[in-house]
Amino acid sequence: MPDSSFDPRCFGLTGQRALVTGSTRGIGAAIAAGLARAGASVVLHGRDAARADAAAARLRADLGPGAAHIGGCGFDVTDRQAMIEAARRAEADLDGIDILVNNAGMQFRSPLIDLPLARWEEVLSCNLTSCFVLAQELARGMLARGHGKIINVCSVQNHLVRPTTAAYAVAKSGLGALTRAMCAEWAAGGIQANGLAPGYIDTELNASLRADPQFDSWVRGRTPARRWGTVADLAGPAVWLASSAADFVNGQVIYVDGGLTSVI
After folding, report:
1. DSSP string, 86-136
2. Looking at residue 153, which CATH number applies to its domain?
């Protein structure tokens, strides 16, 4: 029978090895920093290798001496072979990857009637297919070792849809379903796959929305917390899902949205 006593040290990540895609800024950077502060070795990723290395250097400087390994890697998540090769290099450098955070993504806004097929395919490739390819590659090692954590960064648009965001909403909804499929097939092998669904977060990518007084007012009025989220709001839930504290949490999409999806 499992030990029923609670040990707060189960939230620590010392000795764990993580890869966080799209982590040179915004939500991905905050999650990578949270994992590193909890003790994990972390590989930061960006499309441009120099930017990823620079982000890793900033995080190393912020953490100071004694921190676990912090490195960078660069690849385009829509380039399947480059992504697989980079994942294998990261595994070799760290002697395995225990935690994968699929965060890299893109948005393209267009009325559905005018949405070009090429843009539709680009958004799905970046936000959904890349997550499948990378998780499939790294899950092999996780299954062989008998443990692993996969965190797919979803969206409130798994649940709610706004006009002009069709491709993004479909991709993120598919990512939620993919998360459940990972649970169904890999849970018995020791992998926990869960999703994080941010609400409206104050990031560089949302700067134009944040600056629009009408949209800003809508977000504050629609969100029970009456504010935009911050990237720091995502770091804690990510560390929890990556830790042994969440070993019996699987196939879930955790909404970090200030209550937005809970109210009419």
Report:
1. HHHHHHHHHTS--EEEE---------GGG--HHHHHHHHIIIIIHHHHHHH
2. 3.40.50.720
